[in-house]
Design brief:
Elements lengths: L1 H21 L3 H8 L3 H8 L5 H6 L3 H11 L3 H6 L18
Helix pairs in contact: 2-3, 2-5
Length: 96
């Protein structure tokens, strides 16, 4: 069980980093990914939803997050691959 919690903590840190690099708030992230703000909140603060702490995001949520935040899905999920670059960030920028 500890391994799963460590994986989820890593996911939350990577999600927050991707949001920070893009300059996105939870509201911006919800809009960019078409996920609800409540879903974003639960992923970032799992104490609001015990299931989220144990299970993590569903595959469709992970896919939408990676696309909306323009990050590598493997990096977001597991930390493998390249993280987002701060120099290529910003709400106003459309392409990487």
């Amino acid at each position: 069980m500890t391994d799963r919690l460590e994986i989820m903590d890593g996911f939350r840190q990577r999600l927050q980093r991707a949001m920070d690099v893009r300059g996105y708030s939870q509201h911006d992230t919800a809009r960019a990914t078409t996920l609800s703000r409540q879903a974003i909140t639960q992923m970032l603060a799992p104490e609001t939803c015990p299931r989220a702490r144990k299970m993590g995001p569903k595959l469709y949520q992970l896919t939408k997050l990676a696309a909306g935040l323009r990050v590598n899905p493997a990096w977001l999920a597991f930390g493998s691959g390249n993280p987002p670059e701060a120099g290529k960030a910003g709400k106003e920028q459309n392409d990487d």
